[in-house]
Each structure stands twice: as C-alpha cells, then as structure tokens.
Amino acid sequence: VHTSNKSFKTLYLIESALIYLKGPKFLIYVSGALSMWGDRMWHFAISVFLIELYGHNLLLTGIFGLVVAGSVLLLGALIGDWVDRNPRNKVAHASLFIQNISVTVCSIVLMLVFSYKKWIEEIWDGWLTVVCYTVVIVLADVANLASTALTIAIQRDWIVVITGYNRGHLAGMNATMRRIDQVTNILAPLAVGQVMTLASNVVGCGFILGWNLVSLIVEFIFLSRVYRIVPALSAKPPAMEHQSYLEKKRERKRSQGKTRLKPMKYNVYLKLHSVVWCGNVIKEMTTSLWSFDLTVTQLLQETICESERGVVNGVQSSMNYLMDLLHFIMVISAPQPQHFGILVIISILFIFTGHTMYFLYARKIKRKPRTNT
Question: Where is the chain membrane-spanning (predicted)?
C-alpha cells in the first residue's frame, strides 16, 4: 500500500509538472527570458561595437543613447496607443518580428563594416562609413522601439489577463519576471562579452544574429500557444466601456476592505523609511527601488482600464526616458568625482519625491470609499 501511494504521488507530481510546463505562465516566462536575454546582449554589444567602430571614442555611443531616449520620449504614447487599438496577437507578433529582424539586419551590417572597414572608408571620401553608422543607429533604435511595444503588450497587459485579475497571482508573475530580468541583466552581457573577447567582434555579431533568429521562432510559437489557450486574450473591451470597467474595478477594490489599504500604507512607510535613513547604503536603496517599481507596476496593471493600458504605459516609458535624459545632463554638468556627493543628494531627493507622491496617492485612494458612502 505504501509503495502504491508513493507511486501515485510521483505520477501526480509528474502530471502537475507537465501541466505547468504546458501552461501559459511557464510559456510567458520562457518567452520573456529569451526576449530579455537578447535585449541585454544587444544593448551591451551595440555600445561596444560603436566604440570600436569610431576608434575607441564615445561619440557614436552618445549619439545612439540620445536617439534612443529621444525616440521613446516622442513616440512612447503613440506606441502605447497602437498596442491598445490592435488585437493582442498581432501586436505581439509584429513587435517581435520587427525587433528581431532589425537586430538581425543590424548585425549583418556590423559584420560587413568590421570585415571591410578599410575598403568602406575609401568609398565616397568616407561618407559610406557615415551611412553605415546611420543605418546601424536607426536599426538599433527601431529594435528598441519594437522592444518597448513588446514589453508593454506582454508585461503590462497579457500578464494581467493570464492571471485573471487575481492580485496574488499577478504579484507572483511580476516578481518572477523581475527576477528573470535581473538574472539576464547580469549574465547576458557576460556571455556575449566572453564571445567577443575570446573570438572577435564579427563572431559576436554572428552570435547575436543566430540568437535572435532562434529566439524569434521560439517566442512566436510560445506566444501563439498562450494566445490560443487563454481565450480572454482575444477579447478587448471597446473604448465606450471604459467607464463601466473602471466602476467594476472600484467596486472590487471596495469589497476587499481596509485590510488591503493598511499593508499598502505600511509598505510605503517602509520604503520611505529605508530611503531616508539608509540613503548612503546602495544595496538598500536598490532593493527599495526594485520593490517600489514592482508596486507601481502592479498599481498600473490593476487601476488602468484594459483598453488604455498601452497608452498609459507608453507615456510611462516616455517619462522614464525623460528622466534618463535628465540623468545624463546632470552627469555632464557635474562630471568631476568631487561632485558625486551632489548627484547622490539629488538622486535621493528624486526617490523621496516619488515615494511621497505614491504615499499621497495611496492616501487618496483610502479616502475615496469614505466619501462615496
């Protein structure tokens, strides 16, 4: 009897594991891991490639960063609106295709430039080199815009629908995606850096090219399967249903009572406390920022109506890049090591301001049910 029970438990565990591996959550995790790994490799490699191409000068890298930040700043809301107005599967597939094909073509151009650099520099009095640089930066920027659209679609919309608007499941998926993001952020640059160091820049381009082609196929298959096994993904509420949707969300929040709001307020207090008292400890600040980012991400997922998630998250992406531009401007304005303390103080003030605004928002939400009763 003991042996049969043990066998039954083993079979049950195997069956549960197979069901999970075929389920939408695991497929999203794998697809997200492949996409993030490719993004991290590309973002690291393109900066190194541009430095190598321009004679160990940071000019091209600076131009690339400015173009990327400026394009998302200007087009973020339009990208989000495009995500909202089109079917989920078409948005995901189009973004995936544009991103990976742009990186693939850009890698081919880089391989040609690295292989025939001297010959290219002699054509058109060197202007062909400028054309190649322009093509590389434009393609890399298009890939980044497509990556932004894919991130908004999958991590800000699909995940909410897959979890069935369950707060616990949504928090779990957000946390898992963040863990995947942090792991790939460390390992992907290390991997492609080793390839470029042990082989060459041309081999590094080829490695990224191959990865993106394989990733394109796998992600396309996995996202298509998720779309098929989660019927809710095929339905999007029209714009006229915004108000009724928001009212349902508010009623759902009110029914959850004050127990949800108290931990929220306490959580915000902890983050404020850690920032104020441990501002000089980088590890504590980073942990607090990651926690706060997860909180804000879920806040946007839960409070924004389904037909406006794309445009709101697009605006958020634009604001993120605006702050990134301000960060670069401040570093340029205070480049000396002795100015670092000023930058730290400014950073803490920005963090404190963000947490304070969130605290005020949480307090406002807490008071709403009282005014409506």
Answer: 12-38, 58-79, 91-114, 126-146, 208-227, 340-361
CA 99, 63, 43, 78 dihedral sign is negative
Q: Is the CB of residue 45 less than 8 Å from the CB of residue 208?
A: yes
Long-range contacts of 199-205 (CB under 8 A, 24+ apart): 200/114, 201/48, 201/49, 201/52, 201/110, 201/114, 202/111, 202/114, 202/115, 204/45, 204/49, 205/45, 205/49, 205/107, 205/108, 205/110, 205/111, 205/114
Regions of the chain short of the pLDDT cut 70? 1-5, 56-57, 237-292, 332, 335, 368-373
The pLDDT tens digits of the residues spanning 329-366 come to 777 677 677 777 888 888 888 888 877 887 887 788 77
Number of domains in the chain: 2
Name residues whose C-beta falls within 8 Å of residue 311's C-beta, 6 or more positions apart in sequence: 77, 80, 81, 83, 84
Same domain as 80, residue 56: yes
Query: Does a structural domain hold residue 320?
Result: no
Q: Is residue 221 part of a domain?
A: yes
Instruction: Give the residue numbers spanning the domain of 248.
Output: 238-304+334-373
Report how far residue 130's alpha carbon sits from residue 75's, in angstroms, rounded to the nearest whole number. Answer: 25
Question: What separation in angstroms does the CA of 153 have from each of 40, 91, 244, 288?
Answer: 19, 7, 23, 26
Angle value at C-alpha 344, between 339 and 348, nearest 5 degrees: 150
84's CB contacts (< 8 A; 6+ apart) are 307, 308, 309, 310, 311
Q: 201, 218, 236 — which closes off a domain? A: 236
- Residue 358: Cβ within 10 Å count: 19
The backbone torsions φ and ψ at residue 281, rounded to the nearest 5 degrees and listed phi first, read: -105, 110
Q: What is the pLDDT of residue 3?
A: 64
Q: Which residues contact 248 (CB under 8 A, 6 or more apart)?
A: none
- The single residue listed with the structure tokens 């996202």 is 223
**Which SS3 state, helix, strand or coil, does residue 199 take?**
coil
Q: What integer pLDDT is reported at residue 372 of this predicted model?
A: 52
Cβ atoms of 84 and 75 within 8 Å: the answer is: no
Non-local (6+) Cβ contacts of 37 within 8 A are: 184, 187, 188, 211, 215
User: At CB < 8 A and 24+ separation, what contacts does 258-261 make?
Assistant: 258/366, 261/362, 261/365, 261/366
Q: How far apart are CA 232 and CA 289, in angstroms?
A: 32
